[in-house]
Amino acid sequence: MELKTILGYLQEKTILVTGATGFLAMVFLEKIVKVQPDVKMVYLLLRIIGKALFKVLREKLGADFDSFISEKVVAVPGDVTCENLGVQDFKLREEMFTEIQIILNSATTTSFDERYDIALDVNTFGVLHVLSFAMKCIKLEMLLHVSTESKGTTKFNFQVREKKVVEKKLNELKARGASEESIRGTMKDFGIERAKLYGWPNTYVFTKAMGEIFLENSRHNLPLVIIRPTVVTSTYKEPFPGWIQGFTFKRRTKTKMYGDPTKQKSYICSYYRIIDSVIAGYCKEKLTCLLVDPISVFDMVSSNYGCDANQSSIVIYHVGSSFGNPIQFCDIHNFVFRHFTKSPWVNKDGNAVKVGKCTMFRTMASFRLYMQICFMIHLQGLMFVSKASGGYFKDIYVNNSQKLTLVMRLVELYKPYMLLGVVRFDDNNSEELQKLTSECYIDAEFNFDPKCIDWEDYFMNTHIPGLRRHVMVQ
């Protein structure tokens, strides 16, 4: 049997990458330009070459790095929510239609409770714009769509026009003279409401699922690969161990807490990687309890494995670890505890933070009871004292009330993922692809078998050090 090479396939290929600032897209780009310098061209929506991820390639090429990148990478102003991906330059657009052979669509908004109108535009209808663009590419060999792994009902009534539902809701809010802040909050809640109506836990997975369904039903004969990675963590080995993109923060103006607390603004953050936010809060002693079943299998995959599984086929690849190399949350907690006991986090005052074992609640009822006893009763007392003192403690009450509201909202959002128990995703297609690759391709550059990961070594010596180095210091 004649052996082929993946690198040979990539030679002289022209590739379009959407969502270029995303974690997987950056790892994908670094991998491509490093292992196949003879790739013809990579079109990106945004330039991201300044990232630390590219330091290995920069060191390898030295003074030639900038010229190499300028020859191989083109930054394209665009937007997946627009027709023709928002590419206004007619000459550039026609050039792309003529030359592009591979499209990686990783454009997404990952906030679990994003505004429903925004999530629909990017995660659902954005997919249709990418598909429409792909159908105009006369040399297209593959559309690789990055979806998401999730559990939920597959029933969806396509007669329900979600776009019209959103437009109606927005028109109602504007007719009532609702403020931008009120519209934002209402549309976030509306997204969760629509998702749960159809059996999905949050706006993110619901809109991503709709996008995938539309893509499968509308692709006609377009060569399509759908990859569904689970929670994506730091790099395992390449280009160096432990690289990870920072958390996504949504920052709003901070003001003093006077007047109606519902109208006040504060800093709100939305974490894409659940496990990393837990680690960051735990090591700083800001997280002492957690709603989680200790035996829950936490399905994750290193970003290297998510990007190496990209062979051409018209099938869906689940890329995760829960089936072939499962890890339970209690094991993760043990690794994190041992790491920060041996090498504690040093706070801004220069003091080492001593960590203890985190209290885990297996049910929402037990967690609510704990919050009631430890925080809600105290908060009610603070409200009474504030009223009795003429509002002297009002700022403290409002601040703590908002924090508690945020905590409970995040708990509700993450609850479906933290109380899964022993749930595993079928990765047979990825297993078959791994086998096919090892038998038919001679490249040593590509590997996407998560069974080779030693979780203890990965967490203790790669992921947590990478998280501290690339994210938490910021």
Automatic annotation (TrEMBL):
GO terms for biological process: long-chain fatty-acyl-CoA metabolic process; suberin biosynthetic process. Its EC number is 1.2.1.84. Keywords: Lipid biosynthesis, Lipid metabolism, NADP, Oxidoreductase. Residues 403-472 form the Fatty acyl-CoA reductase C-terminal domain. Residues 17-251 form the Thioester reductase (TE) domain. InterPro entries: FAR, FAR_C, FAR_NAD-bd, NAD(P)-bd_dom_sf. CDD domains: FAR-N_SDR_e (cd05236), FAR_C (cd09071). Belongs to the fatty acyl-CoA reductase family. Catalyzes the reduction of fatty acyl-CoA to fatty alcohols. This is Fatty acyl-CoA reductase. It comes from Pyrus ussuriensis x Pyrus communis. The lineage of its organism: Eukaryota, Viridiplantae, Streptophyta, Embryophyta, Tracheophyta.
